[in-house]
Amino acid sequence: MKRRAFLGLFLLPLARGQGPTPALTQGPYYLRDVPQREDLREGLPGVPLRLLLRVRDRACRPLQGARVDLWHTDALGRYSGVNAPGTFCRGWQATDERGEVAFLTLFPGWYPSRTPHLHLRVEAGGRVFATQLFFPEEVQREVYALPPYRERGMPRVNNRQDGLFRADLLLRLEREGEGYRGAFVLTLPG
């Protein structure tokens, strides 16, 4: 499926009547010096996750040239550069003229105090915006039944138990081959 058609499936319904995306803590594990790239997997095992993001201002105009950082744990719940060497599952891209970026990564693992999530940071016009995206629990059950995730089992903290979880930051996911694809519109405040 072509990228524009794929984006239309997810982004158009999300764009109607949406206010600014809720900001959430950047968290302690952001690293600025990571590669500019689309594929964050570095050959690691795990379920592929294709993520398409559209960044826009509060007036719904696309933001071209914004830096979008994405980072998360590997399948075993480790952050690169923190409790494992390297830069796996980390990278950034600049938005195109439509305000879009695409990443190919892995469905993240979990660690004891949090539900599975992705971190996003956007720099645009001298301003910084950070948030997190979450996963439907039915998808988590499917993914964590597969290797290498099944070695650790289901997360200890579900979405409702996570103090940062917000239902409006839940990714809508579709199957894509052996993995999933999702899209999200980031509407920056002010």
TrEMBL record:
<dbReference type="InterPro" id="IPR015889">
    <property type="entry name" value="Intradiol_dOase_core"/>
</dbReference>
<feature type="domain" description="Intradiol ring-cleavage dioxygenases">
    <location>
        <begin position="27"/>
        <end position="115"/>
    </location>
</feature>
<keyword id="KW-0560">Oxidoreductase</keyword>
<keyword id="KW-0223">Dioxygenase</keyword>
<dbReference type="GO" id="GO:0008199">
    <property type="term" value="F:ferric iron binding"/>
</dbReference>
<dbReference type="InterPro" id="IPR000627">
    <property type="entry name" value="Intradiol_dOase_C"/>
</dbReference>
<dbReference type="Pfam" id="PF00775">
    <property type="entry name" value="Dioxygenase_C"/>
</dbReference>
<dbReference type="GO" id="GO:0016702">
    <property type="term" value="F:oxidoreductase activity, acting on single donors with incorporation of molecular oxygen, incorporation of two atoms of oxygen"/>
</dbReference>
<protein>
    <submittedName>
        <fullName>Intradiol ring-cleavage dioxygenase</fullName>
    </submittedName>
</protein>
